[in-house]
């Protein structure tokens, strides 16, 4: 049988030992008190008897002492006192005590003790039995008054062994201790013999799970029977619990696997998903929800009111009430909700546009909340804005191209007839000055129309593979003379040259417009930076920027440290006639022209600007690997006047342009046939000689190239000169003139037109 704090032997033996120890302590205390009382009574009796002997001696010698005092003989008196002291000392010594005699005034008369001890004993002034405390010991004393002389006689007990110290009394303690020890041993042996075996049997059988055997003790057999019944029921319950546990483990495993699978699916989605209870508090969130909202752990959302956390305000910052929140309609109105454009707020306080769906969640046929699925539509909104902007620019471009075409048809006869007048008028004629002003206005109108054509990407480009770095360097001096002296122009060009297919004059116009725009944004002193760099635009960049094709590009960046622009201005800067300058300080076509030229070159342009932080325009031109073209110095043209009268067919649907061209060619000595309709032109030349066809590109029913193709059947090798305000894609593709095509842009000067015709006839 084990012996620990929880064992039966411990619980029986230890309390018994404690009780015995208490009894032993009580008996020892009682014996001590009895012996102390006996000792004190003995001391009082013995001291009283000693004092009685002393009093008898004093009484016997009193007459002699008195006679000696009366005789007045000091020698006799001293001898008598000495005799009395010796008698008293003998009495106290014989009886094993000490003594002290004090006179009536309290002074020490005689003592068998040292003076200091005697003084301590007589200092109390008590009579009868008392305890006097000295500096180191205490003394048992018995004091009486001797009435004849008023002396105070004190008998003092010497140190004697107490009753407990005496051998007869000291035997009591070991005997009591031995008796108690025997009692404890007997109890322990009885308990061990009586309880150990039955207890060990019960413990071993309970541990092994077997039935408890009969012990022969009635109480233990009753307990064993109860234990056996309990063990039997326990085995039955254990078997049932094992089956239930196996089933529960299997179900929990399946549930965990299913939950883990669902969690993996939800964590792999791009959509943020969270659940809320009817109070709006979060009950679930997936990984995408945490990432989109800028949180690190789901504990930051669980139990938190989601409306107050992420949906509390409109985009402009005004409060968004709980009652207006459409997320809650899912369980308030028991209807599914889809919102295609609202904002959620991130942990850092920023907002982002979202599209979300809120669906009702039912539990036990009652609404228990809602589940919300949302996506970040920032990129979609950006692409939509870019697409709308591109569509708007395309629409404006088509409008600008159409207007430019009509303006060119009007400006062509204006310029032509003005030049005729100048040729007919004398140089000193006052009217000539007025005609020159008309020509100057027409030229300014032509420049304006040309800018519109550039924006609408309808102008004709002379495309060559050029080195952009070289173009910038050669154009630097012109830019330096154009820009104010208090503005610094810095060049940071790429170390390696890259070729781009471009019209050099158009690229220079882009540079000039960008640096002039930067100059206007700078107040007094400032800096303009022109930079080129090789960049690789990947699929991610292209997905965030409409009309961008991934590939290799040469970036041209023009930056300034001027006033910058806000978002509303940035969205409109490429629109024709939009300007932030004062009235009369700009046409609003500079950046529109840049936009059109860049797009016509197959490039892209983006602006980055903030108020007070300056502006950067980044232009991306596709890099080509073709051989760079080097310009040859132009040789002066010598166009001789025609010797023979040549035949020219003019087909132009605009009457004013046609009439002016007819008159110009006639004055130059050509035989001219002119008509408005291509079908009529085919009939007019039937059988007649024909040296040149001058035709508009775009005409009703039949285009200029189609007419030329029909004429080639009867006039092989017939030369043709096309003229138009813009050409659509008939002879020009992506703004580049088809190879071998001769073309003149409306409006044109008569001298330029004449040279073009004469050069063409000469070839």
UniProtKB/TrEMBL annotation:
UniProt xrefs under SMART domains: HATPase_c (SM00387), HisKA (SM00388), PAS (SM00091), REC (SM00448)
Alphabetized Gene3D superfamilies for the sequence: 1.10.287.130, 3.40.50.2300, Histidine kinase-like ATPase, C-terminal domain, PAS domain
Coiled coil region boundaries: 227-258
Protein name per UniProt: histidine kinase
Taxonomic path: Bacteria, Pseudomonadati, Thermodesulfobacteriota, Desulfuromonadia, Geobacterales
Catalytic activity: ATP + protein L-histidine = ADP + protein N-phospho-L-histidine
Species of origin: Geoanaerobacter pelophilus
TM annotation in the entry: 12-32, 171-191
Domain (Response regulatory) ranges: 647-761
Keywords: ATP-binding, Coiled coil, Kinase, Membrane, Nucleotide-binding, Phosphoprotein, Transferase, Transmembrane, Transmembrane helix, Two-component regulatory system
Entry's EC annotation: 2.7.13.3
GO molecular function, one term: phosphorelay sensor kinase activity
Primary enzyme class: transferase
Domain of life: Bacteria
GO BP of this protein: regulation of DNA-templated transcription
Domain (Histidine kinase): residue spans on this chain: 402-625
Keyword Transmembrane helix: yes
